Fold this protein.
Amino acid sequence: MRVTTRSLYGDFLSTVARTQAKLADLNEQAATQKRVNKPSDDPVGTARIFAYRDSLAAIGQYEKNIEAAKGWLGLADEVTMQASDILSRLQALAEQGATGTLTAKDRAASAYEARQLFQQLLGLANSRYEGNSIFAGHRMDETAYVQGAMVLNQDGAVVARAEGSPPATILVQFVGPAGTQATVGTTDPITYRYTTDGGVNWTTKTMDATWPHTVDLDGVTVHLENGFTVDLSPATNTKTSQGTWLTVATAAVYQGDVEAEAAVTYTAKPTAASALQVDALPGLSQDVRIQVTAGSMGGAVSYRYSLDGGTTWSALQTADTGLSPVLWTPGGAVRLRAPSGTSLAGVDLTARAASTSVDTLGTAVTAWAAGSFSTNVLVRVDTATSVGAAGTISYSYSIDGGTTWSTGHSAPNGTNPVLAVPGGEVRLTPGPGGESALPQNALFVVRPTSASHEVDVALGARVRLNDVGMEIFGGVFAFGAVTAAADANRADNLLVAAAKLVAALETNDQQGCGRAVDAIKQARSALSVSMASIGARENRLEVAATVLSGLKLDETERLSRVEDVDIAELMTRLTSQQMAYEAVLRSSSYILRQSLANYL
């Protein structure tokens, strides 16, 4: 068979190209230490590599989250330990103050230390991690607490709200003939006197019957509700057991989030007030019904409230919505939102404690939810009906945004039907205008609110970073409202207990010091529960970090087996390929050097 020179050259170039390509591939593997450098190297292996890399990236993010969580919780742990130490010292001061042998000067000396310790507690409650407040719920960019004032009666119960921050405890006495009474809004005038130095010096002022009903204490203002009754005593009386006495004490006012936003429903909402929106302020302690009798947005509004569903009502109260659009009651407060000039007369609403707001679509009935919801819940009416009709309400619900629905549910209809859903129930009542129609596909959306800030530490596992200051340190709310978890009149409210001790020492109140002893003991016990919760989360982070370390090692080994090259095998192949390449060059060069002269 005849082999042409052209064929020889073609075979030579093809062989050289193949050996060069193989050698280049091996050199690239040697340079990158990777067996797979492009998808064509191993298409199936490439898919596995991407999956392993995604898994390792997720593990890396989990590890970052754990480190951040350790920082948050480590600071919270240290803060609560310091708070516990401060409470120990406050308890010792309270026990000293409750001793009958101490003089007013002795208690005044202890009061100075107690006030400094209170300021230190306030600072601890405002602790920040990387600029974020750790005890303010979701309002991490805000200060959890500010210093304010609270108003106590002789028994140490919070009875009114105050504005301002007293540098020292203020003692207020309502002055008049012994055995007589005065009523705020009726008696004109009411004489009172106050002292800021434990009774050494007194200032006398009067309050008339016109609104606003405020007690002016030179920098601190106490708001008394219309109809508030006080027992009078002569100025010569120095016993707080006779007559009505108020103590205006330093307080820590909480500005952060609470766990849930209470729902507001309407019994009546005139057309003129259709633009009105009402929000329940944090700290609603019980259901509060409010009726607005006169006024418009931006001006003075007259209203009354009921704490028993409308059986009994308070005297008419007044609020200036131009200054602060807030209607205050002993059970909590609501904020009004409406264009200026909107008529509010005839509005009848109820702020419902321990409830969750519900959005309605396609119906005008009123709805709210009760329970503990971890996610949004959609409720759909499957068969048209109306609230109060005979029979049942057929409905479905979804907990994944409407992607899938749980169908075939029903609830007895009636005046206030209740629809059971995961986490709680949705309650229905006719709308403010008596609207009761429930068209098919009418929708209710439960949108739970939460003050917790959580991070993922593993697939399907989350850990809470922050805490609600009210649940750990207590305190009071801006409008005097309190929650079941942080009742200002509850014994284990840490900041309130400390503030009451300061007030008792500064006013030489031996009985108040005695009450503070028990309150601080209970506050320490409650704080230990919070410390246990923080410690448990820290332990969980340690376990999660250990598990992730093992998973990361396993995933890295699997990735290496698919992606990385075997160095010993590579060196052998590289040497072999280098020899093959050189052999091709030598043999080809020898063949191509031949000419006719070789055959002469």
Q: What stands out?
A: Residues 157 and 489 are 5 Å apart (CA to CA).
